[in-house]
Amino acid sequence: MKELRNIYFVQAGDLFGDNAHFPYASGCVAAYAWSNPVIRGHFRLGHYTLLRTPVDQAAASFEDPYLVAFSNYCWNYEYHKVLARAVKARWPGCLILFGGHQVLNDSPAQLEGLPFVDYLIHKAGEIPFEQLLLALLRGEGPGGVPSLSYRGPGGKALRTPDDARAAGRSCEFPSPYLTGAFDSLYPQYASILTSITIETNRGCPHGCAFCDWGTVRHGLQCMPMERVKAEIDWAAAHKIEFIYCTDSNFGILARDEEIAGYLIESKRRTGYPVKFNANFTKNSNETVFRLNQKLGAEGLSHGATLSFQSLAPAALENIGRKNMSFERFRELLSLYNGAGVPVYSELIVGLPGETLESYARGIGTLLEAGMHGALEVYFCELLPNAGMSGPAYREKHGVKGVRVRRYQRFGAPGNQDEIPEYAEILCESNTMPAADWVAANVFSTAVQGLHGLGLLPYCAIYLHKEQGLPYERFYLDLMAYAKASPSTLLGELFAFFEKRFRALARGEGENAVYCDPRFGEVTWPPGAALFLCAAYGAERLYGELPAFLRQYGMDGDVLAQLLRFQRAAISLPGSQPPGEPFGYDFPGYFTAALAGKPAALQERRTMVSFPAQPLAWADFAREHVWYGRRKGSLVKRVYDVTYG
User: Which CATH number fits the domain 5-170, given the four candidates 3.90.1700.10, 3.40.50.2300, 3.40.50.2000, 3.40.20.10?
Assistant: First the structure.
């Protein structure tokens, strides 16, 4: 009996609470290769390294490895380099292969800086990996393997051409779940593997400059419907709670409604999956609305995304993006609100062409349209294969980046203590100098933490309705007040985050995430962190706010009662009266205002009852700020109201 050569895969990831993800990309490569009987007859599929275990321990877990393949992403690249070096030192004859999104699409030069790596696979890995194993088996050189970089004569890094036929073959690739490619993960990891990744199609028709998804341009390739449904069945049989769909534009195809229907049927029949998360198509439509409505009704969806990235025409042109019209956005937002489907939007701070004024105005415009729920704001990360990262683009738009330590948002802070990971983020462009980038981040942190999560929206809405005060002006005024009043809670908090953003812009800071044992062992992004710190000091916050709000000439009695209503309407841990009396009908006023209807504040005796918040702070932070931030679970929009 011939001896099989051992092949191992490494796709290290973080734990999210007590949950880990299947190494899907590695599994896809393995499933395709081991569908070839020649490879099955000569190579043994070893285990996967899916957690960031200590390097010595991870290296020692391999037994006489012939080849170790690493699937590299921005969250594991540094760890993988250290582990690969250790494997090479322990087994000098072992072949090391790097693939994944951190491998440059077109250049072999990356290989020169990785002396412990033998091969780079560029772009999709299934076909090149299979062809490499076959070439090694035949004793041939790697020159005939597509999309591969290797060392040629004199150690020069060489890259082979891509196979033009490979782009249209994604639909032929087998599923790692259905072929048993992941069987070796059981039973060792069964208790933490409660999330899977599926793709119903592969590819992206867009070419946004900040993204590396659309840089490999070919048409969408659909996975067979029988495969998609079988993977959902597999997830249910294995009690998988969370399915993440990697499609770049779920909802772009008519068949996606059939897939959503099958997910719903599976949950009704088996209880699984519990949640389904997808990247919905960029230009949302009625199909996406129906999908979110149906998925939301079954508790499968966290909420619908109406993303813009930017509302500045110059920025959109520079990134190659075209948003839906704002009139269309208002129509869709009205549909979602009318159906009770939570909606959130996403923006990227500092895109080339954006100014501080246009950025603040864009957020104000979203609020004017009724987007008062969660707003997700991200740094512009300069990904290795994104168009924005190229030297010509950087020079044209004055793009300057800084290297910062990477932490997963809502992750465990200790996941990367041994070997930090890093990202390059944009902190300056021709239209937004570093000082404005800092101010833009403080501004969006204020809107996320104080408006979207519920600490101040009623105050801002009231002033917008009664005085026509633009929403961005309200929060810019609040920033100015905080700077002029450094001893207030908001003065302290805004100064804290401004200092962090300034350090990042200078390349001296680690990251903007915030960790605090009061709120659990979680890395909170700035908006969530601001909310938690301000909410923890709620009595001080609301006691100090009249000094800020008096500048708008509000009636003293209305101001006092409005703040009391705002405080009562936000669901926070701690004691709270079962009922609050008011002299004005705030529930009726804000219900109409949030629905986009004419609102007039009526002087009327009103008793409002709010349910208590029984959770401790750490549990509250996890359930409402992490899990529930996109569902509007913090502001009690349903009131028990008695008049008279």
Answer: 3.40.50.2300
Per-residue pLDDT reduced to its tens digit, 184-210: 888 788 888 888 999 999 888 777 888
The architecture that CATH gives domain 192-301 is 2-Layer Sandwich (3.30)
Only one residue has tokens 């190229």, namely 390
Instruction: Give the pLDDT confidence of 93-143 residue by residue, as tens digits.
Output: 999 999 999 999 888 999 999 999 999 999 999 999 999 999 999 999 899
131-178: pLDDT as tens digits: 999 999 999 989 999 999 999 998 899 999 998 777 667 788 999 999
Minimal CA–CA distance to 117: which of 105, 144, 99?
99
Distance of alpha carbon 174 from alpha carbon 181, whole angstroms: 10
Q: Which amino acid would we find at residue 246? A: T
CB 523 within 8 A of CB 407: yes
Tell whether the model's pLDDT for residue 180 goes beyond 80: yes
- In 53-125, which ranges are continuous DSSP H helix? 55-60, 77-90
Task: Sort 284 into a burial class: Cβ within 10 Å, 0-12 / 13-18 / 19+.
Answer: buried
With beta carbons less than 8 A apart as the criterion, state whether 513 and 409 touch. yes
Residues of the chain with CATH 3.40.50.2300: 5-170
CB atoms within 10 A of CB 213: 18
Answer whether 453's CB lies under 8 Å from 528's CB: yes
CB atoms within 10 A of CB 332: 20
Amino acid type, 195: S
Report the interhelical angle of 457-467 vs 471-484 (nearest 10°).
Answer: 120
Instruction: Write the single-letter amino acid at 303.
Output: G
The segment(s) of the chain belonging to CATH 3.30.750.210 are: 192-301
pTM across the whole model = 0.90
Cα–Cα distance measured from residue 449 to residue 442, given in angstroms and rounded to the nearest whole number: 10
Token pair 């942190």: residue: 445
Amino acid at 2: K
The backbone torsions φ and ψ at residue 207, rounded to the nearest 5 degrees and listed phi first, read -140, 50
CA dist., res. 240 & res. 201, Å (int): 21
